[in-house]
Amino acid sequence: MKFKISLLLLLVVFGLQAQDRDATEMAINTQLENWHKAAADADFDAYFDLMTKDGVFIGTDAEENWQLDDFKAYSKPYFDAGKAWTFKTLERTIYHPKKSKIAWFDELLETQMGICRGSGVMRLDGKEWKVQHYVLSIAVPNENVSELTELKNEHDSALIKQMRSN
């Protein structure tokens, strides 16, 4: 009898932990969807309210490593014009260690650039999950890497030279 009670308690505890993890992952997923929607709706305030005050956005260009204030300044004209960017989630995986205030994720997105990959870090800020760090990459099929490498060779060579001279 003691064994059955212990087993039942153990199942309840694991069930509660799974529910907590599911609720956390659902909250993170909702925040990311809201973040992408705010960009599609060109809602500057909503978009940046979903990022932490020390947020970072890494864009697809090698020179796009935006700290929050610089990213706001860069993107404000797009939001003001009523068209920022539209990212539609194709798939997303969220990684969240139990009881952590940090989670990370990766996602595939349908964008104006074709399929892109986003990855990032979410941080619990008070009671709300916010984007702390985001990296956007254009997904390139392996069979097209040689063509792409050749296409960007001149630009990359100049940038590498510039960065090594600093």
What does this structure look like?
About 8% of the residues have low confidence. The radius of gyration is 20 Å and the shape is globular. It is of the alpha+beta class and 166 residues long. It has one domain: Nuclear Transport Factor 2, Chain: A. The protein has a 6-stranded mixed beta sheet.
Which features does this protein show?
single chain, 166 residues, alpha+beta, Nuclear Transport Factor 2, Chain: A, 6-stranded mixed β-sheet, globular
Our measurement of the CA-to-CA distance between the termini, rounded to an integer number of angstroms, reads 72 Å
Radius of gyration: 20 Å
Count of the separate structural domains: 1
> In the CATH scheme, what's the topology name?
Nuclear Transport Factor 2, Chain: A
Strand content: 25-35%
Lateral strand order in the biggest sheet: 2-1-6-5-4-3
Question: Which second-level CATH architecture applies?
Answer: Roll
Low-confidence stretches: 7-19
The SSE string, one letter per element, is: HHEEHEEEEH
- Summed over residues and divided by their number, the pLDDT gives a mean of 91
| Largest sheet, strands/sense/barrel | 6 strands, mixed
Number of helical regions = 4
Which class best fits the helix and strand makeup? alpha+beta
For the secondary structure, the number of strands is: 6
The level 1 CATH classification is Alpha Beta
Q: What overall geometry do the principal axes of the alpha carbons give? A: globular
Helicity range of the residues? 40-55%
Oligomer: single chain
